[in-house]
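Notes from the 1:1 (GR / supervisor)

We went over the backlog. Supervisor wanted to see one worked example end to end before approving the batch request, so GR pasted a single chain during the call. The sequence is below; no edits were made to it. Supervisor asked that the structure be written out right there so they could see what the output format looks like.
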Amino acid sequence: QEANVQRLREYRSKLVVFPKHAKKATKGWVDSAAPDTVTEQVTGVVMPDISASKKCKARAITADEASAHTVRMLKAVRNDSRLAGYREVQRKAKQAKAEADALKKAN
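Structure output shown during the call:
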């Protein structure tokens, strides 16, 4: 992630944005009327593609990977995260009810 942030910072440092309408220029845009802002269009590779160098080689699927129920596992994890708040509320309600019942029995 840090490499991606660095790549985006480098991209933004090289970026030149000209306003569509000169009267509506906002912060960070280049004033097209100023003579020192003349830039030329870059052709070819502007920034190198770093993702091309990190390709993984294909490999055979192991017996553990083949026997794992990946879709079922992912669905269970997704449901657990989706229902976490609901289950917390239900747990607190059950705990409050148990405390109320214990209080009734004590009296």
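Supervisor's comment: Residues 24 and 31 are 11 Å apart (CA to CA).
Batch request approved.
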